[in-house]
Amino acid sequence: AQRVTQPEKLLSVFKGAPVELKCNYSYSGSPELFWYVQYSRQRLQLLLRHISRESIKGFTADLNKGETSFHLKKPFAQEEDSAMYYCAGGKLIFGQGTELSVKP
Amino acid sequence: GAVVSQHPSWVICKSGTSVKIECRSLDFQATTMFWYRQFPKQSLMLMATSNEGSKATYEQGVEKDKFLINHASLTLSTLTVTSAHPEDSSFYICSARMGGMNTEAFFGQGTRLTVV
Fold first, then answer.
1. Does B40 contact A at CB distance below 8 Å?
2. How far is CA A56 from CA A46, A65, B54, B103, in A?
3. What are the Cα distances from residue A49, in Å, to A25, A46, A82, B45, B53?
4. How many CA within 13 A on the CB side of residue A35?
5. How do residues A61-104 score in pLDDT, each as one tens digit?
6. Contacts of B109 in chain A (CB under 8 A)
7. A49–B104 C-beta distance less than 8 A
8. Which residue among A92, A96, A97 sits closest to B105, beta carbon to beta carbon?
9. C-alpha to C-alpha distance for A47 and B48, rounded to whole angstroms
10. Contacts A46 to B, Cβ<8 Å
11. B51 in contact with chain A, both atoms CB, cutoff 8 A
12. Side-chain-facing half-sphere of A31: CA atoms under 13 Å
């Protein structure tokens, strides 16, 4: 069965620090992976997808098939990055979510 | 960007009654729509996936007779919670996409259902 795992429920960093939100997947075939973000009192929105290889708001995510991971990274966190981050895969099955808190 | 709208945003119903939640893609045609349930402080749990004109595919453990999903057109899907019980109280979210599995899905604002 398709599964997406985000091991960290909460990640707290200071402004300017690097950020890495972990995501691991387990399903066969070519993975389709996404990162969605939910800012306070807003609906979920796409942050980035692995097929695009793009950088959005300074975030990047690299698909590592060997480690079955799709970790989200940003070199310098900003306060406005504070939000819930969800990794999703395949038929839009979501991981547990990681709350990112960036402190001033 | 594309907009997905859910109606109503919140609803209170009595135990034993049925309630219908609508999900509309306002400015695009959605080939696939998804329904999720979200418990407090938890992630989204996929309930079912529906393609226009065909029966919904339910995830394991989701009762298809309890959660009726209809995707009658490319812009509308409905979720009907039948014979609602207090344990059905939850936040229900729909999303829609216009292409294949690698395309972006757009999310509704969610519907808060309270069964009393």
1. no
2. 10, 22, 35, 16
3. 14, 8, 20, 20, 28
4. 31
5. 988 989 999 999 999 999 999 999 999 987 889 999 999 999 99
6. 43
7. yes
8. A92
9. 23
10. 104-105
11. no
12. 27
Query: Mean pLDDT across the stretch B103-116?
Result: 95
Asked if A61 and A68 touch (Cβ cutoff 8 Å), the reply is no
Specify the residue for token string 């969800």: A86
Query: Cα–Cα distance between A29 and A7 in angstroms, integer?
Result: 23
Rg (chain A; Cα; Å): 13
SS3 state of residue A80: helix
Chain B contact for A32, CB < 8 A?
yes
Which residues are registered as beta bridge partners of B19?
B81
Between A and B, how many residue pairs show a Cβ–Cβ distance under 8 A? 41
